[in-house]
Amino acid sequence: MLTVNIEQQQGDFCLQLAHSFADDRVTAIFGPSGCGKSTLLRAIAGLTPGLKGSVRWRDALWHSRKPRMKTEQRGLALVFQQAHLFTTMSVESNLRYGMPKNVSDSELAIGFAEVVDMLSLRELLQRKPAQLSGGQQQRVAIGRALLSQPQLLLLDEPMNGLDATAKKQILTDLRRIQNRFRLPMLLVSHHVEEVVQLADDVVIMADGKLVSSGTLQTQVDSLAGHSEGPLSVLSVTPPNQSAGRVNATDELLAWQLAEQQLWLPVNAAVDVTGVSEAKTCAAGRLLVWARDVSIATGYLPNTSLTNQVVARIIDFEPAKHVAETVVVLTVGDQILRALVTNASVKRLNLQLQQQVYASFKAAAMH
Ligand SMILES: Nc1ncnc2c1ncn2[C@@H]1O[C@H](COP(=O)(O)OP(=O)(O)OP(=O)(O)O)[C@@H](O)[C@H]1O
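== Molybdenum ABC transporter ATP-binding protein ==
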């Protein structure tokens, strides 16, 4: 457990937060720009002068009135928005920089060879940072952090400014790393996609304060309230390899959502077990924005939409825009939200407990 009860004044801004973070999973710290996410991470790392209160990690008191434990004694590693690599050193030297000296790879909890392979860095070991893309630089920064053998990894928007492909690779790598090493992580992000793909727990902040916290599933509504609108997080079970791909060019795989079949682009769902071979993974996670879900009262035989699932209406919620309604649906035991116009609700005569078909484009999933 990481327990913080802190107050940090920075000019007009005041961070005031008391919370206990689980020490065996990924917690996302989510909130708008300027709400204090980075300040919180820096306070935990011992990088903010004038911090009041206490920070306790397991049995160790990292911060109290006095004495304050130095950052390098805390057994944590930080990855920032910029990779901050040593420009004159090779990738390999950067990676080895913080490693314990005179210890063989097999004696380390987090070994060099494994990290290099997990982060796909083998081909890059002899290059200099200037010869790497932004995503590759960040993977080296993550590798260097891991090889310092931390007990806790602090990630301050490590995917900021990267393109979608680089982001996706880092998210997948981080999930795999967490599963392999059971390394607790605090991830600062203001992107819902990153939170949904990586987090087990979510802490939502605003104006230097904690607004809500809990498991990802309990925080879906809060996330929606602080982002681009209503959303759902669906659990899907592994692709049915025997069903295979639709064809080589479609690159779609069959997944199961509450015993119904979904066709998703390869890698659309995040393998939350961290096992890359889809046939051996236990579950995947999908983010579906309510605006990407449409409802029909019957099965649509001639549609370009790939997925239609049978769902039941369990609620109507007001939407941000007065002309729209959030239709809350169940698919098996899972919740799916659809944002539709009030006019459509009326035209289709949608009713509570009615069975409908919910459609969403596979490409709308992350
Ligand atoms: N050294 C400083 N002196 C005074 N104010 C500061 C200092 N550093 C940050 N702040 C202020 O503290 C507040 C919190 O900043 P912080 O960087 O923690 O926010 P954030 O949630 O991480 O934002 P972002 O998502 O944009 O990175 C902001 O209002 C910022 O302007």
